[in-house]
Design brief:
This is Glycosyltransferase family 35 protein. The protein contains 36 helices and 24 strands. It is α/β, with parallel strands linked by helices. The strands form six sheets. The protein has a nine-stranded mixed sheet with strand order 7-10-11-4-1-12-13-17-18, sandwiched between helices. The chain has a six-stranded parallel sheet with strand order 21-20-19-22-23-24, with helices on both faces. Strand 8 and strand 9 form a beta hairpin. The longest helix has 30 residues. It starts with 10 loop residues before the first helix and ends in a 10-residue tail after the last helix. It binds ligand GL2. The site of ligand GL2 has 18 residues, from helix 7.
Length: about 850
């Protein structure tokens, strides 16, 4: 920057602001400069984009705090029923741009920053993502927070303040494999949280539990280790409202700094040991998606967080001075998957042991308070904790679980006398060495309602996961809430050009359609308007160029924005079948290779993008990344084909990268084995941004097709009921790949031949397809390739394609998270909108 003038921007503005000659200056400018000087203690002469970001963030935060305070005061005064969303993951992404949008302050800050010499867009990208989640489940929680504030619902989120979020993904330059680096997201201070050092609770682990032995079921739990939970509040502004909700994240701290006795005795290590073990609880997010590892620290996280959250709710409830019997009339608690299931047991403990509520009444309160969402039918994600571990870590809770189980099984026995197998299936305890606790069963029996996250999935939850419980409780306890996404972040923020075009076309203020996404249907009457089509296509083109520039900057490779952009971004998992996609890419490559130059010229140009992280211990998923990266290296260098096909693996997928990728996609892939993807939410985001979808008949793909019409999506592959019989066939009557799909066999042989890396490194991955083929790639490959051919054909007719794109966006109303959160509010929690009114 050597020769640039300092300060940047308008010197007089800076000087006036700093000297306090304020009269003419906009409030926002004054506030930014004030934060530069005081909060950051920096001079304008060396202020960089990061400093400008920090000052702008602190200034915006001042606005949020005012609204947050008024909202919380309002909720306290009005004392409505509240809902709490318990989630171990909140994948928030960046906050500044979202806060500016929701506060309606974007133009003001843009102007002020510009006068001070900074471009808003450069400032925004300085912010690190808050990435306290793995994937869809965590991002869903973030969308729900946005919608609950927007809908003015009295809802708080509760989670953990991990010191390290999801790991950063790097790609090894030599072999193309994934490397993991820590994500120290709190390195620079985090302006979006308010430490509440006065809001703390003591959380106990270990020790012993002694029953009173008076038949009351009560006990005293004492001894062990006590850890302090400290609250950090994250402000969640609503869109177009002053309501600002709260996300409370807990940090663990040693109860006393360290053990003075050991310290004085000279045993320094021992002295800090307990303090280290306390801090460890919230040190890192577990990077596994859909798998459980049964580690003690994870159970500690789960209990620490649920116990602190319940203690906090209880304190708030007690301030209302209502009888404890009315707890469920004032509190609804949503369990985001089984991770917070210990909250059910903890509330029982509080009610029975501390509040001296009789057992049956306590259980009634509990089962009217909790609601449980299941997010996956994959068996490897079903949490089970070993009984010996639970007994050691939480002895009192183990007793309670046994008692709950005994009474529950008695009631099952009453309804189905003598059906021992049923009892064994429904029991909270799975027999084995050791015995284990089935957290999903506990979540079901402790909750008032259970839901899945898309129609098909909710059906599978009833039929495959909990059929006994459906028989026992009846259908009405089990229902569906199809997931949703916030159109604020996933359209307005990530695709401002499209948002602008929609606003002018609908001739409605964007505040209106962004809060009532069904209004997008108004676009339908413009589908045949050639001018509109052109503008629609121009927006897509602009977003593709934006992505191309990014790729060029990060990977050093040029992307042709004329090519069709085909995107698959999600966690790497066998069931999501990135393998199918990359094998399809290789098929396209070898087909191109076999063509004459003249034939190639007729092929639709395509750029394929992948992004996503693999769990660090998931060997096959990591091998898939390695294959993608190395195929890309070969394809992108091949002079015969590189004008027609390019391939990119974009490292370190994140919310912010999604905001760049999604608006740029022409087609996106959602190709899970039928019946395995509970819902998917990125499918909704792509379609909202006018991308078309190629996918299996799975999860929310089905409902998207219902909305937009089947002729606007590209479906392929076997249906859910086919999958089990196919797997059976693979196991007992296997048919060689060569017979089933010669095309696929050829692709597998191409990989084996070593052109993407020799030494048979990919054989273990290829063998998952050749042998067993649990995710039925061999059965779906041919229809997949056909579907991609249909995509090519459709894309060749540009006008038709643009119409499909418009029709798709126009029909995404159902997938707003505002609809989903209203469904929860009305059908589950029974809470009402509580609008902040200024007094
Ligand atoms: C998931 C499902 O796999 C995904 O299909 C769904 O959209 C989200 C949100 O409901 O939940 N379940 C899960 O464990 N993760 C998901 O993304 N991580």
């Amino acid at each position: 920057r050597g020769k640039e003038k300092w300060p940047r921007g308008d010197e007089k503005t800076w000087k006036d602001a700093m000297r306090g000659v304020h009269s003419e200056l906009p409030e926002v400018t004054k506030s930014i400069v004030n934060h530069v000087q005081t909060s950051l203690a920096r001079a304008p002469y060396n202020l960089d984009d990061l400093g400008a970001y920090q000052a702008a963030a602190l200034s915006v935060r001042d606005n949020l705090i005012v609204n947050w305070n008024s909202t919380q005061l309002h909720y306290t005064r009005k004392a409505p029923k509240r809902a709490y969303y318990l989630s171990l993951e909140f994948l928030m992404g960046r906050t500044l741009s979202n806060a500016l949008l929701n506060l309606g302050l974007q133009p003001t800050y843009s102007t002020s920053l510009s006068n001070l010499g900074f471009a808003l867009e450069d400032v925004l990208v300085q912010e690190r993502d808050a990435a306290l989640g793995n994937g869809g489940l965590g991002r869903l929680a973030a969308c729900y927070l946005d919608s609950s504030a927007t809908q003015e619902l009295p809802l708080w989120g509760y989670g953990l303040r991990y010191k390290y979020g999801i790991f950063q993904q790097l790609i090894n330059e030599h072999d193309g494999s994934q490397l993991e680096a820590p994500d120290p997201w709190l390195e620079h201070q985090n302006p979006w949280e308010l430490p509440r050092l006065d809001v703390t609770y003591e959380i106990r682990f270990y020790g012993s539990a002694d029953r009173w032995g008076d038949g009351s079921g009560r006990a005293v739990w004492s001894g062990g280790q006590e850890v302090l939970a400290v609250a950090y509040d994250v402000m969640i502004p609503g869109y177009g409202t002053k309501n600002t909700n709260n996300l409370r994240l807990w940090e663990s701290k040693p109860k006393r700094g360290f053990d003075l006795q050991s310290f004085n005795a000279g045993d320094y290590e021992r002295a800090v040991e307990t303090s280290n073990s306390a801090a460890a609880i919230t040190s890192v997010l577990y990077p596994n998606d859909h798998t459980v590892f049964g580690k003690e620290l994870r159970l500690k996280q789960q209990y620490f967080w649920t116990a602190a959250s319940l203690a906090d709710m209880m304190r708030r409830f007690k301030n209302l001075e209502k009888p404890i019997s009315e707890f469920a009339e004032y509190n609804a608690i949503q369990l985001n998957d089984t991770h917070p299931t210990m909250a059910i047991v903890e509330l029982m403990r509080i009610l029975v042991d501390e509040e001296e509520v009789p057992w049956d009444q306590a259980w009634t309160i509990v089962t009217n308070t909790f609601f449980f969402t299941n997010h996956t039918v994959l068996p490897e994600a079903l949490e089970k904790w070993p009984v010996p571990l639970m007994t050691h870590l939480l002895p009192r809770h183990m007793q309670l679980i046994f008692d709950i189980n005994m009474l529950f099984l008695q009631s099952v026995e009453k309804q189905f006398p003598g059906d021992r197998e049923r009892l064994a299936r429904m029991s909270l305890i799975e027999e084995g060495f050791p015995q284990s606790i089935r957290m999903a069963n506990l979540a079901v029996i402790g909750s008032k309602k259970v839901n899945g996250v898309a129609e098909l999935h909710s059906d599978l939850v009833k039929r495959n996961l909990f059929p006994d419980f459906v028989e026992f409780y009846g259908q009405s306890k089990f229902a569906n809430v199809t997931n949703g996404i916030t159109p604020r972040r996933w359209l307005d923020q990530c695709n401002p050009a499209l948002s602008e075009l929609i606003t002018t076309t609908l001739n409605l203020p964007r505040e209106v359609w962004l809060k009532d996404l069904f209004k997008l249907e108004g676009l339908l009457k413009h589908v045949d308007d050639a001018k509109f089509q052109q503008r629609w296509a121009a927006v897509k083109r602009q977003n593709k160029e934006r992505l191309s520039n990014f790729v060029e900057k990060t990977l050093g490779i040029t992307v042709d924005a004329d090519a069709m952009f085909d995107v698959q971004v999600k966690r790497l998992h066998e069931y999501k079948r990135q393998t199918l996609n990359i094998l399809g890419v290789i098929h396209r490559y070898t087909t191109l290779k076999s063509m004459t130059p003249a034939e190639r010229k007729k092929v639709v140009k395509k750029a394929v993008f992948f992004a996503g992280k693999a769990a660090p211990g998931y060997y096959i998923a990591k091998l898939t990344i390695r294959l993608i990266v190395n195929v890309a290296r070969v394809i992108n260098e091949d002079p015969d084909t590189k004008d027609y096909l390019t391939l990119f693996f974009l490292p370190d997928y994140s919310v912010s990268l999604a905001e760049l990728l999604i608006p740029a996609s022409d087609i996106s892939q959602h190709i899970s084995t039928a019946g395995t993807e509970a819902s998917g939410t990125s499918n909704m985001k792509f379609c909202l941004n006018g991308g078309l979808l190629v996918g299996t008949v799975d999860g929310a793909n089905i409902e998207i097709a219902e909305e937009v019409g089947e002729d606007n999506v590209f479906f392929f592959g076997h249906l859910t009921p086919d999958v089990e019989p196919l797997r059976y066939q693979h196991t007992y009557h296997p048919i060689p790949v060569e017979e089933k799909s010669p095309a696929l066999a050829a692709v597998l042989n191409t990989v084996s031949s070593g052109i993407f890396g020799a030494d048979g490194i990919y054989e273990p991955l290829l063998n998952t397809v050749r042998q067993g083929d649990f995710y039925i790639l061999t059965d779906d490959f041919d229809s997949y390739i056909k579907a991609l051919e249909m995509v090519d054909e459709a894309y060749a007719d540009r006008t038709e394609w643009i119409k499909k794109s418009i029709r798709t966006s126009a029909k995404m109303g159902k997938f707003s998270s505002d609809r989903a959160i209203q469904d929860y509010a009305q059908e589950y929690w029974n809470i009402e909108s509580t609008k902040l009114v200024e007094e």
